[in-house]
Amino acid sequence: MREHESGSGSGGERPRDPEDKGRELAELVDAFRFGMLVNVSSAGELRARPMTILEKRGAATTQDDAHGASRLTFSTSLDNALVADLRHAPRVCVTLQDGYKYVSLTCTARLAQDRARIRELWSPPLEAWFPDGPDSRDIVLIDCDVTFAEFW
Q: Over the stretch 53-73, which tens digit does the pLDDT of each residue have?
């Protein structure tokens, strides 16, 4: 994954260690519970949807995860148009914003129906969309593997 920190800095600033930037990105991403998932629809138009982040992989601040968030996971219904869109065009952008904190993640989305993972990631708020619980055949996970990240 490539990372970039944008912003207005003075020309005299010392470049930061990539590991430090990775840790900072991981800490930023770890603070978010929701994100906007932006994709290209089957009609070729950009669509953005607010989504609950179910899982953050690589969003730890350890030496091993120095490159920041590497995957975010969301869920949706199989009959949602988003599923068909992602099968056709899996490149997405996930944006996170809170106050003056901004993160933009370029990702490749993959659909997964791993029952064990769905049970592991299940939480009571998901019942609003999936009243049959974690064994509902309608649930699909969207794993967004980060390929590029920017933050301000």
A: 999 987 533 334 435 668 999
